[in-house]
Amino acid sequence: MSVRSQLLKGILDGCVLAVIEKEAVYGYELSKKLQDIGLQDVSEGTIYPVLLRLQKNGWIRGEMRPSDSGPNRKYYFLTDTGQETLATIIEEWNQISVPVNELLKRR
Length: 107
Description:
This protein is an alpha+beta fold. It has one domain: Arc Repressor Mutant, subunit A (Orthogonal Bundle). It has helices at residues 3-22, 27-36, 44-56, 80-105; strands at residues 25-26, 60-67, 70-78. It has a 3-stranded antiparallel sheet with strand order 1-3-2. Strand 2 (60-67) and strand 3 form a beta hairpin. Helix 1 packs across helix 4 (80-105) and helix 2 crosses helix 3 (44-56). The longest helix has 26 residues, at 80-105. The two termini are 25 Å apart. It comes from Siminovitchia terrae. This is PadR family transcriptional regulator. Pfam families: PadR (PF03551). Residues 16-87 form the Transcription regulator PadR N-terminal domain.
């Protein structure tokens, strides 16, 4: 596994929760949004196991909705617990990223 993949794996839950916080999305749409912001390594094959885990943790919930172009799609929404978890992830990320960035800038 590449260094990039390992780093992404550690923060992907937070990224997914942050996207879902803004609006309900279905899996493929979520994957595209993450790719559009520069996380090219995040494919549908990566997203669905993450969504399943987040749903099992009670951080998101899924709801089937009709689609204008084909079969129904499962849209994901943040739960109250997911909102709290996202806030914790953001706080922890800030506590880690600031000193790490400072150390890496010194090189």
